Amino acid sequence: MKLIYINLFLLLLTTSVMSQESILGFKPTTVTAQIQLEKEFDSKLSANNLDQWMKRMTAEPHYVGTEYGRKNAEWMMNQFKSWGFEAKIETYQVLFPYPKVRLLEMTAPGKYTASLKAESVEGDKYTAQGEALLPSYNAFSTDGDVEADLVFVNYGIPSDYEELEKLGISVEGKIVIAKYAGSWRGIKPKLAAEKGAIGCIIYSDPKDDGYYRGDVYPKGAFKNKTGVQRGSVMDMPTYPGDVLTPGYGATKNAKRLKWQEAPTITKIPVLPISYEDALPLLSALEGPVVPESWKGALPITYHIGPGPAKVHLKLEFQWDLKPAHNVIATMKGSDFPDQWVIRGNHHDAWVHGAADPISGMVALLEEARAVGELVKAGKRPKRTLIYCAWDAEEPGLIGSTEWVEDHKEELKSKTVAYINTDGSGRGFLNVGGSHSLQAMVMEIAKSVTDPQKNVSVYERRSAVDLMNGGDGDNKLYALGSGSDYTPFIQHAGIASLNLGYGGENSGGDYHTIYDTYLHYTRFKDPGFAYGVTLAQTAGRLSLRLANADVLPFEFKQWQNTVSTYLKEIIELTDKKREEVDKHNSMLDKDVFRLVADPQKPFTNPERKDAVPFLDFSPLQNAVSRLKAKTDQVSEISTDKLSAGQLAKINQSLFMSERILLREEGLPRRSWFKHQLYAPGFYTGYGVKTLPGVREAIEQDDWKEAQEQIEILAGTFKGFEQHLDKIIAAGKP
Question: What dotted CATH number matches 48-94+321-547?
């Protein structure tokens, strides 16, 4: 029955797509020309170009500061120029620590020294490049030389420490070992340090990323026993970018902090290891057996500790400035040269980076080449298109952040939107971003054909969503952090999108020496069919924003999304109140004593403070008023408006995201200024919507929660007034 329902749903979608005779943002007189332009654009895309360019760009490691990274940047600049773009390289001097000493050894109850080295594999020449391969480490770990008992903390996220507290286990003065996954890696040492740990080790358990998932490389796609995930542990939820120049560009003569004073460098040393190196350490742990949900796939009984395993961890880094080379390529618009549509992908990698990021980078290049061909044929975009290849994304979104900080005022005055891609592969379309762009994205998704199933990528995404219990509506996910959209939307208030394909490209290559051209073309996107599809999707986004008569921002879906976020935080408060009331009621009835383990001394749980009633009415009223305003905006008929009226409306439309900023930023992290979307302080990449209010509630800071409610209501009032300007400009 479920399959019948899905087939009927897809038939309705197909009928809807076939009958579509309009494009959001285009007058009836310009729709046909835009559809024809997009067909021409598609016809110029070549999978062979993506293949050859990936092979060239991933031939050698190209992390920030490498000679090959510079060569890639110069090669891309010359490619852009050959396609008719004005192209240049903008270089910033950024802190990039390189490991000098990496030592991890178990000193009790037995002896073991971790190899900290991934094996080259037969048949993949790129994994055998020896000294050129970047050693496995976590960038922006602090230096350290520590020895202590080991404690296993599962994923090392807040809920895991709550479990440890229930068991009466402290990590104070200990070294913790955590599994990758569950959260962004930088949260693990951050939380461990706050809990009193003196060191942190992170490993990839084969249950999450190894033989439990499938055959390991080179037989299959998954992580073999020696694979290690590199990655930054910079405290990016405080601020991303160069750690020495917070809030301003890392130009040659910029004033810099001392690295020892940089707040986003970890407080304790942290090192990633393979599951081969983790096995002896975990095998030596005793103490309680872990909860069922903590168990991995290694052939051991998982214990928490502490001890008797004791480990010695020693790390030293070279704290040097390195050049980060951003490639900026501009195609000036014919009608509105001072309205910019910016398209970006990073080009640096931890090692070869075929999947992350070159799969997205070559799609961007092919998109730009096709645009150049259209321009040579006399079809220049109305607005300026700027294609960017960012450097130093991997250590902390550094290249893009420094560029945005360096050019922030001009970007805020001219940029219509930013479109980001990163790693991509075979599978389903995934798009996140500003919900004012949701309607446009869904419309475009219905016009792009999936290369495997020959239906629209919208239909295929909807089908898998329905199979997984969703409603198939393909809404945008909210942006947290983890790629180069962050400085655009969350610092500069520029409407942004992040897109890619995936879901059928799983593997253990992420940030390892195995993320190579050969691995990618075997397991990720053989034939680059989805690379071309990514170029088609992002190309339509860029071209429609560049050519639209009225910019395709739509606020009814935006308001509906905001209403959902408001409902969530009210329900979160109610749930917390119910939990506290239940806890205190159980305490009054002495339930805890009755269920306590008789073998353990009983300690009365503490009575929890009651959750006060927050006054959400300012937000509820503001969001209700916004519904009326967004309805009025949607009713504006632009067909008969003058050129002057359209200009005013377009200017107000692309400035709308700026209204959602607060210059003072979020509590304790002023760099993040957006009031709707931010990475969570304790989730890293994971988003927190309405973050000022939500995180105050999560931390039981009721005074701050009420203050943030008032602040957010003020933001929405400003947005209401901004919509009034659009409504006024749209009157005949």
Answer: 3.40.630.10
